[in-house]
Amino acid sequence: MEELKKTPLFSEYEKFNAKTIDFGGWALPVHFTGIKNEHHATRNNVGLFDVSHMGEILVEGKDAEPFLQMMLTNDLSKLTPDHARYTFMCYPDGGTVDDLIVYQLATEKYLLVVNAANIDKDYNWLLKHKFEQVTISNQSDKFIQLAIQGPKAEQVLQKITDTKLSDIKFFEFSQNVFFSGIEEKALVARTGYTGEDGFEIYIGVESGVALWKAIIKAGEDVGIQPIGLGARDTLRFEANLALYGQELSSSISPIEAGLSFAVKTNKTSDFIGKEVLLKQKNEGPPRKLVGLEMIDKGIPRHGYTVLCQQKKIGFITSGTQSPTLNKNIGLALIATDYAKQGDLVTVQIRKKEVQAKVVATPFYKRG
User: How far, in Å, CA of 121 to CA of 87, rounded?
Assistant: First the structure.
């Protein structure tokens, strides 16, 4: 049996009594003090996440921009250094290779941050289509990635840096942030996967443990908590942030997932999957991702069948009892004809059909 991969921060988990699980071949903490507790800590205060399992791929060279314009659905033509975009790589049939964030480091230099389970697939997909004057390198083993999220994230992080963090706006970043007692500079981006304010920090592997400890110490007075995968999932789910393998996949397009804002079919350059995605945009996709709120008792789980009058109309992509709203809710990919707000459907939970209604998303919005 293959040994699980560990991030350089694995040794720190024990100090906080982490319960670790196998997550796509990685030994990662599912929780430290409990999923609900960590969820509320992030929503109301501040939490620290080790997300070093994520992948980082560097794309640089004279033709880096035209190459990425072909590979990615969003428009990079107006992107400038120290700014980022959420985007997709798609197959010719419109299915999703991956969702990712692209950071422009310099005029001809981009960092792609991809999902952990997709690192090799994404890297090979990029290599398969590479332009001559482009260099692509998988840098995933060189970075630690930490996320500090929550209303007090800036307050805590500001204690250990002279960089004015309030100057970094949403989806912007600084590449030259130094933290107290750490010689190596970090890239700090105002991005996240929780629906809260906060930052994602990229720094070399050797500095990871020191930075983790420094942030924990800086947040002690406000009760900072380390946060596991369980709360990361409930937080992103409430904010309607897609999870690859659930809301997005090789058979689910970004348009079906309701993410057309990051699919720029009007950009001048062609991109892989454009024809199908343009058709879905213009005509409307046959299926649509919707929010469901349970009327009857029961929690909709990933993969459960959704029906209307005994007819199968789709399936649950994600579902849980929302810690913030204290309701049983789900996301479902269903036939567009049944996707209007207020429509009633049923979810097959084991041997029972349980009633639910279509509701607006996101379920939770900050402020």
Answer: 16
Question: CA-to-CA distance for 366 and 353, rounded, in angstroms?
Answer: 33
The reply to whether the predicted model has a pTM over 0.90 is yes
Q: Residue 325's domain is classified under what CATH number?
A: 2.40.30.110
The DSSP string of 128-151 is HT--TT-EEEE-GGGEEEEEEEST
Residue 96: name the closest of 131, 78, 71 by CA.
71
User: How high is the pLDDT of residue 294?
Assistant: 98
Q: How many residues does the chain have?
A: 367
Q: Which domain holds residue 39?
A: 10-54+142-237
Q: Are 141 and 53 in contact (CB under 8 A)?
A: no
Look up residue 306 and give its two tokens: 């959704």
Phi, psi of 241 (to 5 degrees): -100, 125
Task: Indicate the angle between helix axes 35-44 and 229-238, nearest 10 degrees.
Answer: 50
Structure tokens given for 161: 């840096």
Mean pLDDT, residues 317-322 taken together: 98
Radius of gyration over every alpha carbon of the chain, rounded to an integer in angstroms: 21
Same domain, 158 and 217: yes
**What is the number of structural domains in the chain?**
2
> Does any domain span residue 243?
no
